[in-house]
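Think of the structure tokens as a kind of shorthand, similar to the way a musician reads notation: each symbol stands for something richer, in this case the local conformation of the backbone. In the example below we present two proteins back to back. Begin with the first one, reading the sequence and then the tokens, and try to describe in your own words what changes along the chain.
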Amino acid sequence: MGAVNIWNAVEVAESHSSQIPSSSLTVDHSLSLSDMKPRILELCKELFKKWSNLDESRLSLETVSGGITNLLLKVSVAEENGNVVDMTVRLYGPNTEYVINRERELQAIPYLSAAGFGAKLLGIFGNGMVQSFINARTLTPPDMRKPKLAAEIAKQLRKFHQVEIPGSKEPQLWNDIFKFYSKASSLNFDESEKQKKYETISFKEINNEIIELKELTGGLDAPVVFAHNDLLSGNLMLNDDEERLYFIDFEYGSYSYRGFDIGNHFNEYAGYDCDYSLYPNKDEQYHFFRHYLDPERPEEVSDRDLEALYVETNMYMLASHLYWALWALIQAKMSPIDFDYLGYFFLRYDEFKKLKENIFSLGKSHVSRSHTG
């Protein structure tokens, strides 16, 4: 993955959608809103020619949310004719290029947007992008488990998985996990406390776990789809009045296994606190699967199909723990954000180890049944 050079993002976007304006300007993530304003003004003037004489008094900024990797700003422009245009400016978190393939993200956005997903891409700049503003609230982890919303998320996810993104359809999951592994296993921390904790990790053991899980899931023949890969509550938005659900933020999107996207979503019921007692039970999972597999006739999905998707999802749910555990180690070293990433590694890896035996035996008996079936 390497440190993907951010400038090539501009080239990629231009080659994929020549009408998307781009600028090499960057906006310092750590500035206060009032100090950011002149920079955002300059950016708007450069990206959108109709605003080339825009006065600062016509521009207002507010923070929408700071994810644990991005900063989102709502930018409103009051035009001369009384019209107000709202946009979202997304600033990439510092050093996120170590874990995110921006090129892949920018290739996918125009196609996902055309299929009705996410916000429209309006412009690209050195360390971020400008998108249309979505008038909706961000979901919380408890929202995701409400039966009506769970059914809607499942239907939308099915549609999302049907979008064709040009380029290689090779599933990226294990490539990404091994890339994370090679970065995560060769870190050095300046603080001795962190270094001590880090040294308690057995990377040889993790490597064996990855190889074993990769082999076992290989026997499932899981469908490969263009997956969101980060369907946590913060990337789901709901307009309550229109009852319209939006998927946003495709920075981890790639071709991957269907079960990974669903299993990863179920892990997110636990929130950042990793309260895995909130992981959906079998009935809740089956409710989701029915609406995913047959949105028109959910009650007619066969037991056999439900069972197969249950095994696939929960096998790949284990992969999701490994993926984000390794990701967290890299963030612990690279990210300036005040979050206990090292602690997060242990929460995810311990959960993997706790669940592994049961799920492996479930997976093995399913694979042997379907091969003799």
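Once you have a description of the first chain, move to the second and do the same.
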Amino acid sequence: MTTPTKAGFVALIGEPNAGKSTLLNRMVGAKVSIVTHKVQTTRARIRGIAIAGESGESQLVFVDTPGLFKPRRRLDRAMVAAAWSGAGDADIVVLMIEAHRGISEGVKAILEKLNERTGKAKVALAINKIDKVKTEALLALTSEMNERFAFAETFMISAERGHGTKALKTWLAEQVPSGPWLYPEDQIADSPMRNIAAEITREKLTLRLHQELPYELTVETENWEERPDGSARIDQIVYVARDGHKGIVLGKKGETAKAVNTAARLELEEFLGRRVHLFVQIKVRKNWLEEKERYSEMGLEFKDGNK
């Protein structure tokens, strides 16, 4: 007798840098979401897929939403709309907060909207980075958060180190609805590989440039060619908003661009398990933040950026 299958969508929400992408990658067991120390790095809702449960009967489809923050620009507004949309469509919502930051103004703003935005979804609390605070402070934070909102369950975790994540995954596997799986067994993400490849390059740019990096850049995979020898040729474009930004991305004698290209290519080869020929161009598009096509590439709704 076969075990009945279960499947459901799990939305990870929280402030920028709460650790959502790190938790998603740990749950899936592979890197499907960009992880940097710079805030607001996740733009599109990336779905990572994990198998869980005692008999491996549950398929968890994780939605890594952009961080919830006070939006100022069109891109910011579209990202926040995507985050709340992801929460509203999910079977389970996991609110992530940072243990050492506690109940910030941003967390308070999220709590105020939770009831109206999550519908009938169960909402769990995951307090992340628990290694940064003492037990007494952690217990006090847990108590106060549960006084402010009726969470279905609370988990104390370290997404980076893996502490407590197994218990969270087990609970999620129990909570998702009974039904057929939504994706093939061997699929770990529903983002096209073209998008994941672009995100990997954007991550390397972010890590390399740190504070110099303007937010006004995006990476698109323009062409993907499968070669007879089993390798892949990938052509990408980095769009920047100003001429001066192009020089920053190129670096002295093109050293920054070369280093980014090498780092992205090596990670793509590891991810795909085969050789990759990566070619990256940098182009200035002064108004790309106002172009509908760029938002479609990022999986965002252009209209959501309207004031």
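Compare your description with these statements about the second chain. The chain has two domains: 6-175, 193-305.
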